[in-house]
Amino acid sequence: MPTLTPMGFTPDEIAEAVGIYASNPEYCRASGEYDPEHIAAGRVEADLREEAGSEGGHVLLARDAGGRTVGLVCLLDRHPKDGYPWIGLLIVHGDQRRKGVGRLLVAAVEERFRRQGRDGLRIAVLGNNLSAFAFWNSLGWQEIDRRPDLQFNRPCVVMHKPLS
Fold first, then answer.
1. Staple 62 to which of 24, 71, 125, 138, CB 3.0 to 4.6 Å?
2. Using CA atoms, how far apart are residues 70 and 93, in angstroms rounded to an integer?
């Protein structure tokens, strides 16, 4: 099981995060946030610091048993509009995809909030990211709404998973 540890924003960790984004060009294209041919470290750092700096925000690096970074997770403890915890981003290094790493990360996040006594968890999946929608659906997450995201006004599918 990968371990999730808070990102300290060291130069090495920023480089690891950039590597994760660079290894997922299809996500970069789907989100429209990053040029998959040139992932700017300063932009990644600024975006992740913004996530970590929001009230109840966490940026976590996922590491395998050998200490290699295999993913990145951004969490929000309590959404200001609905009170639920949210996964803002869960991205697995491209060379670790389809190996069960994503499923393990989701299970770890679900367990984290279950231990806190939370009864549900939410995520917004980009409407044009059909493989991500299929992934979350396969894990028992259910569509509850369709609406644009708050930051970029992109079409999203809001999904929910009961934790009880």
1. 71
2. 5
